[in-house]
Amino acid sequence: QVQLAESGGGLVQAGGSLRLSCAASGRTFSSAAMGWFRQAPGKERDFVAAIKWGSGFTTYANSVKGRFTISRDNAKNTVYLQMNSLKPEDTAVYYCAARRSYCSGDGCHGALEYDYWGQGTQVTVSS
Q1: φ, ψ of residue 28 in degrees (nearest 5)
Q2: Can you tell me the distance from the alpha carbon of 9 to that of 6, in angstroms, rounded to the nearest whole number?
Q3: Which phi and psi (to 5°) does residue 41 adopt?
C-alpha cells in the first residue's frame, strides 16, 4: 500500500502562484510514477501532470504547459506541483496519485491506471 497526503492548496488571485506537495509513504518503491489530477465541480477528473520516480520524465496537460511544473524529491518521497500564472479556470480539487505500472508520454495521463490516491486539496483562483 502507498499512502499519499497532499498539502499547499488555498485561495489565490488570478496571476498568482501556489505550490502543492504530495508526501508518499508506505511501499513507495512499488510506485513507478506520480501524477496530479484535478476535478472542478460538476466535471470529470482531469489529468494535470505526471513524473516518473526513476528517470524524472515529465508530461503535462496542454492546458497547464508553460505554467505548471511537476518535480520530485526522491529522498523525501515527495512530489511537488508548482503552479504559476494561475487562472480562475484552474479552480478545482487537486489530487495526487501513484501508479505501479510503467508508462510513457500520453500513456501516463489516464486516471484509471493510477492505483493510489490522496484525499485532495482545494485550489481556488479568484478573478
Answers
A1: -70, -20
A2: 8
A3: -55, 130
d(CA 126, CA 18): 13
Residue 82 C-alpha cell reads as 508548482
pLDDT reported for residue 27: 77
Q: Summarize pLDDT for 19-48 with one digit per residue, the tens.
A: 999 999 987 667 789 999 999 999 999 999
Q: Which residues pair with 95 in a beta bridge?
A: 37
How do beta strands 10-13 and 121-126 pair? parallel
Handedness of CA 50, 94, 71, 14 (dihedral sign): positive
Place of cell 512530489: 79
Q: Which three cell numbers stand for residue 127?
A: 478573478
Q: Report the distance separating Cα 123 and Cα 111, nearest Å.
A: 19
Q: What's the grid cell of residue 6?
A: 497532499
**DSSP string computed for 52-75:** ETTT--EEE-TTTTTTEEEEEEGG
User: Which residue, chain included where needed, has cell 503535462?
Assistant: 60
Strands of the sheet containing 68-73, edge to edge, are 2-7, 18-26, 78-83, 68-73
